[in-house]
């Protein structure tokens, strides 16, 4: 057993857990954050993607104790109160989800993708960067569309803010 | 249509919870005192169980119970059943072998459940599962259906000699043979439809809770049809009588057929909960899903297609061997029969058809319906034959199809189906135009300059949705009726709840069903709630599969809405002192046509519940129930065109464009319909290019994780060009045909036709992986 | 996963000490080890986490000498601006490993210590003539990779860095397994002051290897056309569900040609 201290969605949390507990299970079972899902055993489907210290990683392939001390954002922490994150809004607007199971991981991966491509995204890049997220419902068509739309909206938003600041 | 009514691209109501992490799936459920289960599964494909020793496991930390099939049998839990009776052509009933939820004396596939271990944590349960000692005597296994029916093959069930479950036929053998004999040309092929694993992203799960005080069971399960689960668990598996069993299918992360069936795990979790006195939750690992979810397809067919001198099809003869795996899953028998052979006429006027189907036990996971279920197999047979025939006859694939299209309706095929409506030329034209078919020759030449092989292929599919009517399917052997139910409750303040027997696991019912209500009464969509997936809330219903929720489920809602509307009009006529026939309901108001007299909708609703001033003799309340039993199947159809570019050095196939032109009849929400098509195409392309379940000769599943089973990823697919035409379905009140499976049905032959066109070969196996394509290229060179 | 004890090392020296516990294993990115533990194929008693050690992280380029800390992630390798100038082929290789989430966690040290026969880095290190630096010694890549999942590492030995001299030309071409995204065949070619090297991953029954036939052909003429007549033998190559040995042999030639073309581009 080890003590695990994390900042999750802006809140400091701690708990004691077996060393073998995966981060995803700590989030789901100890913190009740069940938006993060487990869809495979081989670190491929990406349903479990969360942000750990600003990077989108697979929480099924990391021990909770390994993450201790880190800052974590899960799907539950992405929106700003009632205001959806632009990626969440785009997934809804463009029908980028059906059963919803892969969706949290998709959205967390997509927000990271957009953040790491300040130059903007094209369809080929989005498809390549989604390599670690599997969806069985949508054929990816509308996921790609949603991410491209969100990327555009966010770059407009940041340019807009930059203008205001100037 | 209004911005929220029928035909509008309304963003989904259910999305909010899914995009914020608020979805509630079975694994998210927590019940006080809940423990975790792990199943000990057979590592052998075929073996006798000599001894099970659970003593060591029982002594492990955290263990609550370790239970075996013997105890399960002793408690009277029944065997799993197949719910559709098929008779062989000699009149004998299908040979169903026993399938115990926990194997007792024999295991028949790798993954067969043998023991359940319940412990405080899943880790502890797994630790203890490893300590269960089972002594097996291994038997020879057989995984290939064509080998399993050979004399001397390992015998899997005592009931089925030579592993033959049934030998069934449909159509006119004599007429078909005569057509082939007198044909100007006969095209012959052996066609293999590869085995697939459905792979809904949410693994199967079950949480069984026996409440001793109430003597009542609750089962949360990943099901497409909770009512059927309750019915079957009650009537056949003796878990509990229906009134003491509540089945809840909350948010379900995709099904594609694989969550229709009632599996051993939910039965055993319920039983184990009573046995151990604690709620028992089981969640499959992905590998466990690969091993134990019902697989799909796995047909081998020998096909002959006869043409006259004008290239008109005169006969089609199909001989199919279908692998049903180690046990007969719930609907396994109807998939390669009534969902397959009945569609072998496709979009074509074929005077004589004969299909012979033999279903076979093998030492593999049970095979049942997977998106399309029988119809993809039929379409693959037909559309591969049409392509090959066109090449042999030296006519264009489009021309051969056009020449044989059915153009007048209704049309009675020689294989049961009576097509009610369709317009196949329109879909074909639309697809060819969208694909710039005329420009292909130039694109092929351009690709050749880059050293690439470019090919184009088409597929004209038809499917039958909304399995129906109940009396007809009953006469064909179905164990259940295939109607749907709905209840529309108008609350006192005018908000509306619709309780439906359909189940949504990605299809967007909470939105499309609400659109129907909004359309009818002009109330805002936010004031309409769709309730489903809970047998305590919703009356008996049949669930979601076979693209039936629109055509059948929504028709039931429409019928209930008719009743609500009629009663509301009566109340309003009474209150407004007008003639009932003059009342119209629109934009949330109940009006007397041609006057300025009106009442807000909520006032009519309120009046129905205050009951202070109702027409004489009228019961209070505004709540109506309907059961809808369709009069016929619906027949969505369309044309898909796939264009590929192949790197001859590596065999890598890139889909450079994919066009779909579908006729789904009337459409409630185009955005959701398009989403269904996208997903279906991805699964169909997956079957053609990427996915295949392989067992080795000993019955070990070689593709038991995403390391070896290739799931379609974003980079494997293009954006799709899709369009719809809308020939309304005359068979149901909404004119809906259904759209859930089309993509998976129409796309595999289009892809393979394109690849064989690019390579200049007659056939290539699915999945046409780079290695397979490269080998085919090499073979053409030698 | 079986029970395990987790230790977070405070230094390489501390990690070496902790490694003496039971059947302890080093944990770096965990992208291979943790999945193996989840399926119970790996069962270390203890894990010694070195992923946060600053002394093991980062890319240093000094003249032609490149040094990469063992706990540097694939993402950091793939995006390092200095490396992209000095040896873009290696940065490109790192960008092809796994998927983005895996690249954020997986490390070069972890990858080479595991020596998966289908991993990408071993091909690069072999072709670059790299040196693997441990807490005890320096090992030439040639001596380091020893068959499937086997390396020259001794008990308690910890990789701290890899170092190599950037070649004049280099490129990596990978044909990935459609399911796992590992290499079915990956070929890394280099042309440096010591001549031409070509290393192949994903294909060999004994793991990563240098292809003498490719090297010989390219030594005369470092051009894709020099490989036109190349016939790679399927002998000693793996065959599995995804690719026969013949197919792998073909891919070695194709990927080698493409790598040379890319290196010359």
What does this entry look like structurally?
The complex is a heterotrimer of chains A (166), B (782) and C (265). Chain A is of the alpha+beta class. Chain A has 2 domains: 2-77, Ubiquitin-like (UB roll), CATH 3.10.20.30; 86-158, DNA polymerase, domain 1 (Orthogonal Bundle). Helix content of chain A is 39%, strand content 15%. In chain A, strands 2-1-5-3-4 form a 5-stranded mixed β-sheet, sandwiched between helices. In chain A, β1 (2-8) and β2 (11-17) form a beta hairpin. In chain A, α3 (86-93) packs across α6 and α4 packs across α6 (141-165). The radius of gyration of chain A is 16 Å and the shape is globular. With 782 residues, chain B is an alpha+beta fold. Chain B is built from 20 helices and 28 strands. Chain C folds into 2 domains: 5-165, Uridine Diphospho-n-acetylenolpyruvylglucosamine Reductase, domain 3, CATH 3.30.465.10; 169-264, Enolase-like, domain 1 (2-Layer Sandwich), CATH 3.30.390. Chain C has helices at 12-18, 33-38, 74-79, 81-86, 88-95, 100-105, 108-114, 121-128, 141-144, 212-220, 245-264, and strands spanning 5-8, 24-27, 46-49, 59-62, 65-69, 131-134, 138-140, 159-165, 169-176, 183-192, 195-201, 209-210. In chain C, the strands form 3 sheets. A 5-stranded antiparallel β-sheet of chain C has the order 4-5-8-6-7. A 4-stranded antiparallel β-sheet of chain C has the order 9-10-11-12, sandwiched between helices. A 3-stranded parallel β-sheet of chain C has the order 1-3-2, with no helix packed on it. The longest helix of chain C is centred in the C-terminal third of the chain and has 20 residues, at 245-264. Chains A and B meet through α3, α4, α5 and α6 of A and α1 and α18 of B.
């Amino acid at each position: 057993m080890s003590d695990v201290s994390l900042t999750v969605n802006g809140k400091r949390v701690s708990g004691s857990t077996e060393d073998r507990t995966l981060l995803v299970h700590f989030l789901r079972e100890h913190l009740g954050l069940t938006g993060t899902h487990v869809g495979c055993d081989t670190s491929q489907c990406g349903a479990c993607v969360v942000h750990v210290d600003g990077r989108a990683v697979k929480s099924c392939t990391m021990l909770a104790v390994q993450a201790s001390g880190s800052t974590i954002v899960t799907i539950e922490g992405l929106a700003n109160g009632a205001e959806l994150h632009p990626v969440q809004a785009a997934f809804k607007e463009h029908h980028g989800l059906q059963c919803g199971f892969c969706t949290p991981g998709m959205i967390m991966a997509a927000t990271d993708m957009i953040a790491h491509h300040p130059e903007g995204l094209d369809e080929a890049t989005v498809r390549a960067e989604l390599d670690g997220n599997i969806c069985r419902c949508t054929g990816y068509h509308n996921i790609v569309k949603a991410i491209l739309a969100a990327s555009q909206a966010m770059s407009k938003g940041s340019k807009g803010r930059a203008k205001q600041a100037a | 249509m209004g911005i929220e009514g029928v035909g509008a691209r309304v963003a989904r109501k259910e999305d909010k919870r899914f995009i914020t992490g608020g979805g509630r799936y079975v694994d998210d459920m927590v019940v006080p005192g809940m423990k975790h289960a792990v199943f000990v599964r057979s590592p052998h494909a075929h073996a006798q169980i000599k001894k099970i020793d659970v003593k060591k496991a029982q002594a492990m930390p955290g263990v609550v119970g370790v239970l075996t099939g013997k105890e399960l049998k002793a408690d009277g839990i029944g065997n799993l059943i197949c719910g559709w009776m098929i008779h062989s052509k000699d009149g004998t009933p299908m040979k169903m072998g026993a399938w115990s939820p926990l194997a007792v004396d024999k295991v028949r596939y790798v993954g067969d459940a043998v023991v359940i271990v319940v412990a405080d944590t899943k880790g502890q349960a797994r630790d203890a599962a490893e300590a269960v000692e089972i002594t097996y005597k291994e038997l020879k296994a057989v995984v290939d259906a064509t080998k399993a029916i050979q004399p001397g093959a390992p015998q899997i069930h005592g009931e089925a000699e030579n592993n033959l479950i049934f030998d069934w036929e449909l159509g006119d053998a004599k007429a078909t043979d005569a057509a082939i004999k007198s044909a100007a040309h006969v095209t012959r092929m052996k066609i293999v439809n590869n085995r697939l694993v459905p792979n809904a992203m949410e693994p199967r799960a079950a949480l069984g809770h026996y409440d001793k005080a109430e003597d009542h069971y609750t089962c949360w399960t990943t099901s497409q049809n909770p009512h059927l689960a309750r019915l079957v668990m009650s009537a056949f598996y003796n878990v509990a009588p229906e009134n003491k069993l509540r089945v809840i299918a909350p948010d379900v992360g995709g099904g594609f057929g694989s969550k229709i069936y009632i599996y051993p795990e939910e039965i055993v979790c319920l039983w184990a909960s009573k046995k151990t006195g604690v709620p028992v939750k089981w969640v499959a690992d992905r590998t466990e899903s690969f091993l134990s979810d019902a697989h799909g397809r796995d047909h081998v067919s020998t096909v002959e297609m006869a043409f006259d001198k004008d290239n008109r099809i005169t006969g089609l003869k199909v001989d199919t061997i279908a692998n049903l795996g180690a046990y007969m899953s719930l609907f396994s028998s109807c998939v390669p029969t009534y969902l397959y052979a009945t569609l072998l006429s496709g979009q074509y006027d074929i005077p004589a058809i004969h299909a012979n189907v033999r279903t076979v036990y093998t030492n593999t996971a049970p095979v049942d319906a997977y998106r399309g279920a029988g119809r993809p197999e039929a379409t693959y047979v037909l559309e591969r034959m049409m392509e090959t025939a066109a090449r042999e006859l030296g006519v264009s694939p489009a021309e051969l199809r056009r020449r044989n299209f059915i153009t007048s309706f209704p049309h009675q095929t020689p294989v049961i189906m009576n097509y009610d409506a369709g317009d196949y030329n329109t879909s074909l034209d639309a697809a060819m135009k969208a694909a710039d078919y005329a420009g292909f020759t130039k694109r092929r030449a351009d690709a050749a300059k880059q050293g690439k092989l470019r090919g184009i292929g088409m597929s004209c599919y038809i499917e039958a949705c909304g399995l129906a009517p109940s009396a007809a399917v009953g006469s064909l052997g179905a164990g259940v009726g295939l109607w749907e139910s709905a209840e529309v409750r108008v609350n006192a303040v005018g908000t509306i709840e619709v309780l439906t027997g359909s189940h949504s696991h990605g299809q967007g019912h909470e939105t499309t069903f609400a659109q129907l209500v909004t359309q009818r009464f002009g109330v805002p969509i936010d004031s309409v709630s769709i309730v489903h997936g809970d047998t305590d809330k919703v009356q008996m219903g049949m669930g979601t599969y076979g693209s039936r929720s629109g055509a059948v489920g929504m028709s039931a809602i429409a019928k209930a809405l008719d009743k609500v509307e009629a009663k509301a009009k009566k109340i309003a006529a009474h209150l407004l002192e007008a003639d009932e026939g003059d009342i119209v309901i629109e934009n949330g108001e109940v009006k007397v046509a041609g006057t300025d007299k009106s009442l807000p909708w909520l006032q009519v609703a309120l009046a129905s519940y205050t009951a202070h001033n109702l027409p004489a003799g009228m019961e209070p309340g505004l709540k109506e129930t309907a059961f809808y039993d369709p009069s016929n199947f619906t027949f969505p159809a369309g044309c898909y065109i796939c264009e590929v570019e192949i790197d001859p050095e590596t065999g890598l196939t890139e889909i450079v464009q994919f066009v779909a032109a579908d006729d789904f009849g009337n459409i409630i929400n185009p955005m959701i319909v398009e989403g269904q098509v996208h997903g279906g195409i991805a699964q169909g392309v997956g079957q053609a290019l990427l996915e295949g379940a392989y067992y080795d000769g000993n019955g070990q599943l070689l593709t038991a994780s995403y390391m070896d089973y290739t799931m379609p990823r974003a980079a494997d697919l293009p954006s799709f060009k899709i369009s719809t035409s809308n020939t309304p379905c005359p068979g149901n009140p909404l004119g809906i045909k259904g759209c859930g499976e089309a993509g998976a049905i129409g796309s595999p032959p289009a892809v393979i036709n394109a690849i064989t066109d690019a390579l200049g070969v007659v056939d290539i196996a699915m999945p046409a992986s780079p290695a397979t394509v490269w080998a085919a290229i090499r073979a053409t060179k030698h | 996963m079986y029970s395990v004890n987790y230790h977070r090392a405070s230094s390489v020296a501390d990690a070496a000490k902790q490694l003496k516990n039971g059947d302890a294993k080093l944990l770096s990115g965990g992208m291979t080890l943790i999945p193996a533990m989840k399926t119970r194929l790996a069962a270390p008693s203890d894990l010694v986490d070195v992923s946060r050690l600053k002394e093991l992280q980062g890319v240093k380029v000094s003249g032609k000498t490149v040094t990469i800390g063992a706990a540097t992630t694939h993402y950091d390798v793939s995006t390092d601006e200095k490396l992209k100038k000095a040896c873009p082929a290696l940065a490109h290789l790192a960008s092809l490993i796994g998927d983005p989430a895996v690249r954020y966690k997986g490390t070069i040290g972890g990858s080479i210590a595991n020596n998966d026969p289908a991993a990408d880095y071993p091909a690069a290190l072999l072709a670059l003539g790299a040196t693997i630096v441990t807490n005890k010694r320096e090992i030439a890549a040639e001596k380091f990779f020893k068959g499937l999942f086997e390396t020259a590492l001794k008990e308690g030995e910890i990789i701290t860095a890899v170092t190599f001299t950037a070649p004049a030309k280099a490129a990596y071409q990978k044909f990935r397994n459609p399911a796992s995204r590992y290499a079915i065949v990956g070929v890394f070619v280099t042309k440096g002051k010591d001549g031409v090297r070509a290393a192949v991953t994903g294909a060999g029954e004994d793991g990563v290897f240098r292809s003498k036939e490719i090297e010989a052909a390219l030594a005369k003429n470092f051009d894709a056309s020099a490989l036109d007549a190349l016939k790679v033998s399927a002998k000693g190559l793996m065959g599995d569900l995804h690719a026969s040995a013949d197919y792998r042999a073909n891919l070695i030639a194709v990927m080698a040609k493409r790598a040379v073309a890319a290196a010359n581009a």
